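Researcher: Here's the sequence for the chain we discussed earlier.
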Amino acid sequence: MALTSDRSGPWREDTKLSTRRQNTTLGFAIAAALIVLSGCASTNGIIPVSDQAPTVERLLTTPLEGVTGRDGMRSAMIRAYEIKDLDSKHIDNRPKTLADNHILSMFWLEPAPVDFMSMAVAPQPCFPTERALHLTQAKPHSQTQSSDEQTYDASRNGILVSFSTTPDRKCVSYIHIETEALTVERILTEPLSGTAGRDGVRTALARSYAIDPSMTKYTNREPKVLADRQVVSLLWLEPPPADFMSISLDSVPCFSTQRALALTQAKPYSGSGGTSHPAYNAFKNGMLVGFTSTPDGKCVKAIHIEEDK
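Model: Thanks. This is the structure I predict for it:
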């Protein structure tokens, strides 16, 4: 079944698509290991100051711009640590002084498919927790407040940036950066943040299916289970000039249409003719996210994402 882009309407609702993002999300036990492995910091190995030179502020904020920002910071760290083999795990506990004079006492780079960066930040000079919270708008990782160190998460444009504090909670002690696990909620909402969010979802889908996101037209009917256990039965990626993504979802488990409407603030699309599948469109930040539901209107059946041209 095909899904066709249509300027007078979002897309034909008889589309089928699917996706699953098997993203390995590591807990903060990894980052805790960094603290154990970290030695006393010194001012050896100062990283030259330049526009691209890593700083704690950039490590916290640039990845949240999306995959491009994360990849740019990853490249900067690879240059700083002179890493040659990008296909192998790399752990370096040589102290590195950043351009802002903050010191990393450990750097851990994990290649795909795990694909994360973690770093321990020396307590002196202190990078204030309050400043990190202001920069990232991060929220507590757990609703249960600990009596000593605290961990916070910031998720934006398909990237997760987490950081933990020193026991007195005053300073950042480590930072962990990874791609978020793909879910239906992310597929529905992140493209509405703009092209960076759309590109983050496209990259996550491409990685799930082990394809180059810039490749020519791609379809796959292999069922994929997402991180939220929703099942994608078809994925369709179309490159420019058509430039859209479409997926089909299994109705079991059901992703509630009411939940999708609450997340996207989508409005009914009346141009679908006599179809038995209710259709909805959400327009925001130059992007269109459309979806159809099952005939009973209870579950999301298919999702279509394109620029609002």
